[in-house]
Design a protein that fits this description.
Blueprint: H1 10-17, H2 24-30, H3 35-43, H4 47-63, H5 74-83, H6 96-110, H7 115-132, H8 136-149, H9 157-182, H10 185-192, H11 210-213, H12 223-250, H13 254-266, H14 269-273, H15 279-327, H16 329-353, H17 360-371, H18 374-394, H19 401-407, H20 409-422, H21 432-442, H22 458-466, H23 470-487, H24 509-522, H25 531-555, E1 561-562, E2 571-572, H26 598-609, H27 629-640, H28 645-651, H29 657-667, H30 670-686, E3 701-711, E4 719-720, H31 722-725, E5 729-738, E6 743-750, H32 759-763, E7 773-775, H33 783-791, E8 795-796, E9 809-811, E10 828-830, H34 832-837, H35 839-850, H36 856-864
Helix pairs in contact: 4-6, 7-8, 7-9, 8-9, 12-15, 12-20, 13-15, 15-19, 15-20, 15-23, 16-18, 19-23, 20-23, 22-23, 26-27, 26-30, 27-28, 27-29
């Protein structure tokens, strides 16, 4: 057994164990000694002691660590000698005893606890990290950050790596021992069955293991793919009921479950099976996580299928109404002509009936003669024509809509029937829809003669009574209500990732109550500690903004507002940015036209920031030899240029397709790719050319927008957007850019989703680009985003189309001018008492986002969908 887990590779370990490489500006900053250090330096006698002390203080200020003299950087030593006029120094004389004395002195003066005094607390903290996050490298880095934050000394690599390794071995030993005691023979047999084929015969490409068949869900809208997903969900559901109590007893965090589950997804079945001590733990986590994932997929399938069904029904209804209008124009004329003729005949009969110059026998004879005329037979045809018109929808307020829904119901049932029977969505017990779902599942989709209709509207009940196939119409309406209630939060499923009850996404209520102050400090939200001072300052700021803005409007000094000549609503303009006459003339930033290979560009960037080092193997313990950099470059180009691994392997030299696929499988996780992108972003921020694009060095102005892409293959994530794709489907790549032109975050979403739900994901993504002001378009704007960005101290400046139609708010009691005089909607008043009553929940939500306990897109998409 290795002494330490492979936490860092050789290059990363050398970087950790050696002092940082400074620029001239950084060296000048860190080598500036505080007053106490300057006094100590003046009291020292020998040059090597004085020089060693000055260098150690400088390094400690930067890293919180101490280094032996043989690792001092020559440039730093030369700078210290020159700055403090130390003269020639024999650095080899700066021995271990002197360094130990200086270490104690520096720790005492800086108020930093030595590692040996806090080692027990460090081990406890690392043990906590290991229980929450089964990525040893991430735990190692988190431990370093915690040591710096708590003003504890950062030890040498071997000492800290030993603590992390011991913690992981202890956690895994505890988990496996506890698991062995919890697993019953029945559960073991069920889990062992995943390592066999359906026929209990040797596996091959046409007879895979059961575990293999459960790995990949089918993200398609075809009925056959949906049925296959439901079948897998049924298998996982049966397993989930048996293993979930075991997982609860183990108290596994979501990160641990996700880590082991993704390891099983990447690994071959024999690689999982050969780990006798952990295979059950891994498979348990895979079952839990895949059950959640597949439940989300089936729920998303239901939502999209219902929306597609509704859109098609509305479109068919409009087309049918249009055709009916064309086809029945003659029938309408016949009905109208018949009514006019019948009216004239009735007037003539009335004249005969009330004629005083005729006898009753003459009147009866005239009536009988009229009944034998062709006009009466023609009017009978008018009645038949009117009945046909009414049956076709002319007499129905909703037209033929429900008839179309009924006709299209069969296709919807083929997609969603199994989902509604298998996925048990929860809701209030007295909800009519919940009762209808329970009736539907209890009868396995067979409704019976009197299914519950309490959840339907009166018009829908009437349409159901008049339907040719009430069962088909009922099932389509039931699916629509389930989709609506899921979106509105009236139906939930506790064991999902995206459709859980809202409170389950936030930090645990008990943990929040116990650690509220610590979490506020850790997430830099101490300004939200109490609502009173915060809301007072906001109210004063808002009142000043109203007075300033509308004072300029009234005075006519706002260049963005132009009054109309004839009065009425003024015109709102975006004034042009004035030209900077003192700016130097533009000059080319790049060399003359030439060809630079993409491989050379990637190699050059990698030499400067080592982004390939961020692509770490998924397994923390058994890591094979690392692939060459050219393999990583080939994989990046294969995906970045949309070539695919097969074509890239054929085009690249000395890169086998199997090597490329294995590298992507084990090294290209989403977390690794984001860390690699952050490394490139950090490098771009250090380049002097990037500062040429920045308007204000004291601000970081970021922006976000979506780019639309066609998708020609069947995918549940591709949806219709007529404005951009016409009759085709597509997706949106939502990207974030700062004023230095650094693309620091991107996410791919469905074309039918609003970008506003994903805006905060980019702002809270990392610490490399910390936005101070953010702009987006109307599609990325929402009132919730205004609120949350203000709470996290980011100025939100969206470019809103027709912003004058947006609702403005003010606190009750504020003196607000008449907005209607400026063509704006009247102001609405904020309920401060309600805000203060919900303040702790608001702060808990923001802390959950900043703590990265949940992504903003997940929780805000759920919150915004509520009724």
């Amino acid at each position: 057994m290795a002494r330490h887990l492979p936490l860092l590779d050789d290059a990363q370990r050398r970087a950790f164990e050696h002092p940082p490489k400074w620029t001239a500006a950084q060296r000048k900053l860190y080598c500036h000694l505080p007053d106490w250090a300057a006094q100590v330096l003046g009291s020292l006698v020998t040059p090597h002691s004085r020089g060693g002390f000055a260098v150690q203080v400088s390094y400690f200020q930067a890293t919180g660590r101490f280094y032996p003299a043989d690792r001092f950087r020559a440039a730093d030593c030369a700078y210290v000698q020159q700055r403090f006029r130390l003269g020639p120094i024999a650095w080899e004389r700066y021995d271990k005893a002197t360094r130990f004395h200086h270490r104690q002195l520096i720790l005492q003066q800086c108020g930093v606890a030595p590692f040996e005094q806090v080692e027990a607390a460090v081990r406890a903290q690392v043990m906590h990290f290991a229980r929450q996050q089964l990525n040893p490298t991430a735990v190692f880095r988190a431990a370093v950050d915690t040591l710096r934050a708590r003003r504890w000394e950062v030890p040498i690599y071997a000492a800290l790596a030993g603590v992390v390794t011991d913690a992981f071995r202890a956690v895994e030993q505890q988990l496996t021992t506890h698991l062995a005691a919890l697993l019953t023979p029945a559960v073991r047999q069920q889990l062992d069955g995943l390592f066999a084929t359906a026929a209990d015969e040797p596996a091959h490409s046409h007879r895979p293991y059961r575990l293999t068949t459960l790995k990949r869900s089918r993200e398609l809208m075809r009925a056959a793919a949906i049925r296959a997903n439901v079948q897998d969900y049924a298998v996982l559901q049966a397993l989930f009921g048996q293993v979930y109590p075991v997982v609860q007893a183990l108290d596994l965090s979501e990160e641990v479950v996700r880590y082991y589950a993704r390891y099983v997804e990447r690994a071959q079945v024999f690689q999982v099976r050969q780990q006798a001590d952990k295979k059950y733990l891994m498979v348990l986590c895979f079952v839990i996580y895949q059950y959640y994932q597949l439940g989300d997929l089936l729920t998303e399938t239901l939502q999209q299928a219902v929306q597609t069904h509704r859109n098609a029904a509305q479109r068919d209804t409009q087309e049918r109404v249009y055709r009916q209008q064309q086809d029945t124009a003659a029938q309408w004329r016949q009905v109208l002509d018949g009514v006019v003729a019948h009216g004239a005949a009735l007037a003539a009969l009335e004249h005969v009936a009330f004629a005083f110059d005729r006898t009753n026998d003459e009147k009866v004879a005239a009536l009988l003669a009229w009944l034998q005329t062709p006009d009466v037979a023609a009017f009978a045809q008018v009645r038949t024509c009117a009945q046909r018109l009414r049956k076709g929808g002319a007499g129905n307020a909703s037209g033929p809509y429900y008839q179309v829904v009924e006709e299209r119901s069969r296709a919807l049932q083929r997609r969603l029937g199994d989902i509604l029977r298998r996925v048990t969505y929860d809701g209030p017990a007295d909800s009519p829809l919940v009762q209808a779902l329970q009736h539907y599942r209890a009868r396995d989709g067979q409704l019976g003669s009197q299914p519950p209709t309490g959840f339907l509207k009166p018009a829908e009940r009437a349409a159901l009574a008049a339907a040719a196939s009430p069962v088909s119409l009922y099932k389509a309406l039931l699916a629509g209500y389930v989709a609506d209630h899921l979106k509105a939060g009236k139906l939930n499923l506790a064991h999902l990732l995206r459709y859980r009850p809202f409170d389950t996404y936030l930090l645990d209520a008990a943990a929040w109550a116990a650690q509220r102050e610590e979490l506020l400090v850790r997430t830099n939200l101490t300004h939200l500690r109490t609502p009173g001072p915060f809301l007072d300052a906001l109210q004063a700021q808002l009142a000043a903004a109203f007075a300033h803005t509308f004072g300029r409007l009234a005075a006519g000094t706002n260049p963005g507002v132009k009054p109309r000549a004839g009065g009425g609503r003024p015109r709102f303009l975006t004034p042009a940015r004035p030209a900077d006459e003192e700016a130097p003339p533009p000059r080319p930033l790049f060399p003359a036209p030439g060809l630079i290979s993409l491989h050379e560009a990637l190699h050059t960037v990698n030499q400067a920031c080592r982004f390939t080092a961020c692509l770490e193997h998924w397994s923390p313990r058994h890591r094979p030899p690392r692939p060459a950099d050219r393999v990583f470059f080939a994989a990046v180009m294969a995906y970045g240029c949309n070539l695919g691994l097969t074509r890239m392997a054929h085009a690249a030299r000395h890169v086998a397709q199997s090597t490329l696929e294995n590298t992507v499988n084990w090294y290209f996780s989403l977390e690794n790719l984001r860390r690699a992108n952050d490394a490139v972003i950090a490098l771009m921020g250090k380049l002097p050319v990037s500062r040429l694009f920045q308007r204000d060095p004291d601000q970081t102005h970021t922006s976000s927008d979506g780019q639309k892409y066609y998708v020609t293959v069947d995918s549940i994530h591709a949806t219709h957007s007529y404005k951009y794709f016409g009759q085709d489907k597509g997706i949106v790549s939502y990207g974030f850019l700062d004023d230095r032109h650094r693309l620091f975050h991107s996410v791919t979403i469905s074309a039918s989703e609003r970008e506003a739900a994903y805006l905060l994901d980019g702002l809270l993504h990392n610490d490399v680009v910390e936005s101070t002001i953010h702009s987006t378009d109307t599609h990325g704007f929402s009132e919730v985003n205004f609120a949350v960005t203000f709470l996290i101290q980011v100025a939100f400046a969206p470019r809103i189309q027709s912003f004058q139609d947006q609702q403005l708010y003010a606190f009750a009691g504020m003196d607000v001018p008449d907005l209607t005089a400026h063509g704006l909607a009247p102001v609405k008043r904020l309920d401060r008492a309600l805000i203060e009553a919900q303040w702790d929940t608001l702060v808990r939500l923001v802390a959950s986002l900043k703590h990265k306990h949940v992504t903003a897109s997940t929780v805000l998409r759920r919150l915004n969908s509520y009724s």
